[in-house]
Amino acid sequence: MTCYDRRDLGLLLLRLGTGGVLAAHGAQKLFGWFGGHGLEGTGQFMESVGYAPGKASATAAGLAEAGGGTLLALGLATPAAGAAAAGAMAGAAAVHKPNGFFAQEGGYEYAATLGLAAAGLAITGPGRLSLDHASGHVFDRGWMVPVALGVTAAATAVVVGARNRRVRAKVEGEQEVLFED
Questions:
Q1: CA 29 – CA 36 distance, rounded (Å)
Q2: Dihedral sign, CA of 90, 92, 95, 97?
Q3: Where does the sequence pass through the membrane (predicted)?
Q4: Into how many domains does the chain fold?
Q5: Phi, psi of 71, rounded to the nearest 5 degrees
């Protein structure tokens, strides 16, 4: 019988907590569970904060959160799961950034914490109490970490950059209307 050390137990707790929260947030977006608004309502919100098309953005965010969170909790495909969740949280942090850091002011603290935890798990690995370990790390190879994080970082930069340009153009258009009077 194998004796698990405190690192394995700590990683299990971190995976279950972070993954569970992410999966629940994704289920809100995708299915309207836990008081969420489902794809339709989340899509309208995404459109209102500059992510277009809204429904596709809601689907992508929901899948990254629900799928990434579930896989993190299970400790399966940990590099890809952590990277996907971190990318989704970077997109959420971009929305909250104008409100500062702290969550009580609507800031990005919560999204940043979940994203950093997910990225940390992608880098550290899931520990021995995981499906990755049980499967011989078939979906958790060393080379997968930089690939998953690199691809996600590039895709997130493109998506958030396009969103930021839309928001900037909208603000500039509103300012032009104000000054025309």
A1: 6
A2: negative
A3: 71-95, 107-123, 143-162
A4: 1
A5: -65, -40
Instruction: Please check whether residue 91 is in contact with residue 51, taking contact to mean a CB–CB distance below 8 angstroms.
Output: yes
Does residue 1 fall inside a structural domain?
no
Distance between CA atoms of residues 97 and 174, nearest Å: 20
Task: Give pTM, 2 decimals.
Answer: 0.91
Cα 140 from Cα 158, distance rounded (Å): 26
Q: Is 114 exposed, middle or buried (0-12, 13-18, 19+ CB in 10 A)?
A: buried
Tens digits of per-residue pLDDT, 108-143?
999 999 999 999 999 999 999 999 999 999 999 999
Q: What is the 3-state secondary structure (H, E, C) of 150-166?
A: HHHHHHHHHHHHHHHHH
Burial status of residue 117 (CB atoms within 10 A of its CB: 0-12, 13-18, 19 or more): buried
Confidence class of residue 177 from pLDDT cuts 50, 70 and 90? low
